[in-house]
Amino acid sequence: MELKIDRVTKQYGSKIAVDRISLTLGRGVHGLLGENGAGKTTFMRMICGILAPTGGSISFDGMEAATEGYRSVLGYLPQDFGYYPDFTGKDFLLYMAALKGLPKRRAGEKAKELIEMTALKEAAGNKIKTYSGGMRQRLGIAQALLNDPDILVLDEPTAGLDPKERVRFREVIQEYGKKHIVLLSTHIVSDIEHVAGNILMMKRGQLIYRGPWGEEKGDLEQFYLKQFEGGEE
Ligand SMILES: Nc1ncnc2c1ncn2[C@@H]1O[C@H](COP(=O)(O)OP(=O)(O)OP(=O)(O)O)[C@@H](O)[C@H]1O
Ligand SMILES: [Mg+2]
Questions:
Q1: Whether the CB of 34 sits within 6 Å of ligand 1
Q2: In this prediction, what percent of the chain has a pLDDT beyond 70?
Q3: Which of 4, 32, 36, 167 has the most CB atoms lying inside 10 A of its own CB?
Q4: Domain that includes residue 194, residue range
């Protein structure tokens, strides 16, 4: 299981949002850190095959991104996920499952399983507009998992989660990362420092750190903050 990212670049006019990132990701949890505008979302959208790079290539076990085969192994929670306020949580999952092409019976089973996993059982029959931010976020994570993706991409999945939900989220991700590739972005170092076996750090479109983070390297948060001292150039 190998996600291969080769000199991937995204340029918007004269602005280089992602600058020649090369990276190979295997099973495990990969935590992506970077200040606002660093290029995290742009990078993740290219990995999901919904944004075409202006340079470089992305493939999973030989399948090019943006092909149908590639998309079927991918689960994505966008940063600005759009919900359907008048759907119930359960109907929303069934609808997303249909879009992903899951057979009806499988969709029903999977929705049930994910509703339990994300602790939405009591709220599953209620309309999404009545959900808290944390509940919506959990529903977003659930929809990303519907097709048991080999590659799970979560863009700031912990935004809006309370401390208890954060702990639960970490457990879910850690477990999923044992057998799959999980890439998640966050601004909150504590969300990933104990969960992500691999830390990725972006600054102005470039990858400035990659690798595991061990105690011997000191405090990850301090290191992270140091990268952005002095602000914009
Ligand atoms: N569609 C677009 N057109 C032009 N510029 C864009 C577009 N999308 C993103 N950018 C620019 O590319 C850069 C990277 O943006 P991106 O959203 O990927 O950053 P990010 O790391 O996800 O930030 P945040 O932490 O705020 O979510 C920013 O300078 C942004 O303004
Ligand atoms: Mg972003």
A1: yes
A2: 98
A3: 32
A4: 1-73+149-233
